[in-house]
Amino acid sequence: MQPADETDPNGPECAHAADTHTRSTATPGPYTNDAAFSWILRGLVMGVLILGTANALSFFFRSQGWGSLLGVMEPADEAIGFPLQVWEEGGGYGSHAMNKTAFAINAAAGIGLGVIIGAFAAINRRTLNEIMNRLAGSGTEHREVRLQFSLRGLMVTTVLAALAAATVRYFTPRVEVLAAVYALGPIALVLVAFLPRGFSWQQRVAIIAPATVILIAVTITLGVALDVAFDKVLMGVFICWTPQTAIAAMALTAWVMLREYREIRAGI
């Protein structure tokens, strides 16, 4: 007979502890330990994205007029390029000029900036990996959703884009609507993706990807109805949407990572 003050090794307390240990280790969270090369690649992508955004914004500073994006023919020159001008079009004569040397220099500048960012990230990869682990661990309570691009999904997106474009043709095209799509397109897409509550980021990407294709199709159809050249519509989407999405993505990423870094420093 055991003394009253001793605990049975097979008693309920031990069983509860074993059950707790089993539940805590049964589904371990994801763990990230990316090497320096992975962070250098991320830095390269960031550098190219920053230079691409700067080139898109340069249109508004180098061009003498922006009316061609809305179908208004102006005797003004248009140009793109940062830090060097790589493309120019004469508004009055319709001539085009592409500076390949300047393009190569701009590309090298983007790669150089990416290498600097990547080197900084590689040096601080231990902290960055810890931040990534915290972000991945904070979402383990959500149901895992696999994001796949299937042929059926592509066909459905194409049909929806065609229906949306056909619907637009029945309405009276207005320049103000095209300008609003240029200016507010990315914001509208983000609102559509984030309005549903309780969705994971994979589900929101699954919403925003086909919505982007549909909105681009609507924009092209609207531009054609307004007698805007096809390439001008695509250029308008590039120079108006790229800065908005890139700046928003970089700002949001920086804010999230800075928040996690502060919590790490505070021991939270």
From TrEMBL:
Chain positions covered by the region annotation Disordered: 1-27
Key words of the record: Membrane, Transmembrane, Transmembrane helix
Transmembrane segment boundaries: 39-61, 103-123, 153-171, 177-195, 207-230, 236-258
Top-rank taxon, per record: Bacteria
Name of the molecule in the record: Uncharacterized protein
Organismal lineage: Bacteria, Pseudomonadati, Planctomycetota, Planctomycetia, Pirellulales
